[in-house]
Amino acid sequence: MEYPSERTEESWKKFKYNSYYRGGGKQNAGMSLNYLTFTNNGYQYQIFKTYQAEDESYSTGVTVTDAKGKETDIDGIYKTIKGCLCRLDDSHLILKEDTGL
């Protein structure tokens, strides 16, 4: 899937990004959470990349939510990631969403 099908400068407004970072390693339950969300044809897609210092776990993938709220998780392969969602922190093109994380 390629979204949106027509890419213009306005296309960036169709995405929402949020993140949360807490340093301090295991003793402080450090973590890095990154989420990029968009909606297409009645489905919400949330691309995620997370790290939890307590158990040194990494995860990545896509959560797809239909109009009735049913979620389907598609696991990604963390070692194959190219780039970093975290770079969106500095982008002025994508809406930053404060979800209280």
Architecture overview:
- The protein is an all-beta fold.
- The protein has one domain (9-92).
- Helices cover 0% and strands 43% of the residues.
- The chain is built from no helices and six strands.
- The protein has strands spanning 16-22, 31-40, 43-52, 57-65, 71-75, 95-96.
- It has a six-stranded mixed beta sheet with strand order 5-4-3-2-1-6, with no helix packed on it.
- Strand 1 (16-22) and strand 2 form a beta hairpin.
- The mean pLDDT is 92.
Topology:
Layout: E1 16-22, E2 31-40, E3 43-52, E4 57-65, E5 71-75, E6 95-96
Parallel strand pairs: 1-6
Antiparallel strand pairs: 1-2, 2-3, 3-4, 4-5
Task: Describe the structure using short key phrases.
mainly beta; six-stranded mixed sheet; 6 strands; globular
Radius of gyration (Å):
15 Å
The overall number of domains is: 1
Largest sheet: 6 strands, mixed
Low-confidence stretches: none
State the helical fraction.
under 10%
Strand neighbour order, sheet with most strands:
5-4-3-2-1-6
| H/E series | EEEEEE
Class by SSE composition: mainly beta
On the 0 to 100 scale, the average pLDDT is: 92
State the end-to-end distance: 29 Å
Number of DSSP helical runs: 0
- β-sheet strand percentage: 35-45%
